[in-house]
What we know:
390 residues, mainly alpha, two-stranded parallel ribbon, 3% strand
Amino acid sequence: MEAVKKETDPFVKAALFRAYSFVCSAYTLAPAHHTYLKTGKYGTAHATLPKVIAQPFVAVSAALGVFPWLDYHYSYSLGNYHKKDKTKGFEWENLAMAVKFSGMDDERGFIMLHVDINQYSPDLVKAAFGVSAKEANAASLTDSVALLSNTMKKMNDRRKLMWEASRWKHYNDFRVFIMGVKGNDDIFPNGLTYEGVWEEPHAYRGQTGAQDNIIPTADIASGVIHYYPQNQLTQYLMDLRAYRPQCVQEFFKELTTEMNKRPLVDRLQETNNQLGMQHLMKVYEEIYLFRNGHWQFVQKYIMQNTAYPKATGGTPITSWIPNQIKAVLSAMKALSDLMTNQGGWNKAVWEESYDKKVQLLNKQLEIVAIEAFDPEAVFKLNLEMGYQDF
C-alpha cells in the first residue's frame, strides 16, 4: 500500500487502479457468477474485501479522485484497450482488451465497441465548445450545431455494430462481474466491507455504459438536459455523473454553466435561425436513436437473458432508459413549435415520425408494466414501428 501511495506517474496509477478493480470484482463476484452457472440466477457476492486488496485499491482510487470500484473510464473500457495493429484505427475489430473477465470474444467486442464509438469524441468536444462560445455568430453557431449532428450520426452508425461485435446470448458470460454494490441488494445484501480501511460497509454503482461521456455532452450542449423529468430515475442519472474522472466532471459543470447562461434554442430563436434549428432537430434525432438503440440492447442483452431487474449500475431495468427517452421526445416537441416549413423541413412528415416514437415507447411501457411480461414482445415492437436498431 505504501508503494502505491508513493507512485506519481499518472499512467502507472491508472494501470494500478485498473488491476485492483479487476481483482476486486473478480474476488467479490465470483460466488455470484458460479451460482448463476448452476442455477441461472445471480447469487450472493462476498461481503468483505480482504485488506491486501482493499487498502492499496482505496489508496490509488483516492489518488485519482474516483471511487474504489470497477469503472468505465480507468478500468473496464476507455482505459483498457490496445491496438492489435498500431498502423490501423480505433475500429473495434482492431482493438483488444488489456484485462478481461471471461476472455471470450463477445466480451472484447462488447467493450471495445464503446472505445470505437468514442474515436469521434474530439469532434463532439469541438462542437460543444462551438455552441457554447460567447463570440459565436449565426453562421458559426449553425456550423457547430451541424458538427454536433454529424458527429452523433457517426457515433450512432458505429454503435449499431454492437449486434455484430457481441452476441447478446453471451452477455451473461461476463455481466455479473461488472455489477456494482449500490442498488444490487440481492447480490450485496449487506454492502461491501473494505477490510482495514473502513469499519462500515460501502456501496458503489457498477460499471455501465451510462458512465460514458457522449450522451451527457450532447444533452447539455443541445438543451435536452432541461427536459429531464424531475424524479428518482433522473437522480440516478445525475448520481452516475460522479463516476467519471475529475476532469470530465469539471467539463460537464462548466459546459452546463455556459449553456444555462445562453441556451442554444433561445439563441437560435432570437435570430430565427431555421437552418440551425433543423440541425438541432437532427441532433435530437440522433440522441433519440442512441437512447432507443441502448434500450433495445437492454431488451435483448439483458431482459431476454435474465429476470434480474437491475442494471449493472444498480438502476431499474424497465424504466430508467425510457425516462431519458421521454426527455429527448419532450425537447423535440418544444423545438418543433419554433420551426417552419422551409429549407426542406416538413412538419407534417416530422409529426408522423414523432408520433410513432411516442407510440412505440408507450406500448413498450404497457408491456413491461405486467409482472410476467414477454421481453420478445417488447423487442418486436421496434420492428413493427420501424425503429429496429439493425
